[in-house]
Predict the structure.
Amino acid sequence: MFESFLSFWKQSDILSVAYKEVGRMLLIAKNMYYYSMNVLLEGQQEKRDLYKEDQELNKLQIDVRRKVLEHLAISPNQDITPSLVLISIIIDIERIGDYSKNLLELSHKYPEKMEGTYVKEIIKLKKVVDDNFEKTIEAFTKCNKELGKKVMESHAEIAKKCEAIVERLVDDPHIGSRLGIIYALLARYLKRVSAHLKNVSSSVVNPFHRLGYRPEGN
């Protein structure tokens, strides 16, 4: 299915540009996410204006919508499903940008170095999400269905572990409320980034009506 979408996008001058812009959005979102996590967990000095980068992401989202609308206005009789897929994907990518800002804002609330068991667990999960980001980009740009499936399968485990961390934090009498809130939000934001990557990857695996859901038969 995705192969036919890719062919469709490339045949249209307008949609071919929109498709490239979606690819650029993925790269911007990835860089925003990596940067915010490095500032938060690695203590990297904050030098970039993440809010300006998010504005660029928003502008690209608006431009993709405009191009899709122009294409449908010019060619109303063509299959609209590939156009709807692009619109769906950019919503998820834009949300990753928002969560990247949220992650950076956590570093403003807690500028101290994060240490301990919870942080070690979160860093392990972060590495999986990092890898899934690369897989998602390759799945989308190279029409790699198998990589898309791996991201979708991986998310289920990430989500389960993130929720387990939150549940343990709620019941942990030894952790302070401030740090507990920071860790819980961090786990939840990481889970949401993973979920949006899963949704983007699902566009390579599933038909339009099942975007964001498990493949049929799973």
In short: The chain has a mean pLDDT of 91. Residues 13-42 form the longest helix (30 residues). DSSP finds seven helices and no strands in the chain.
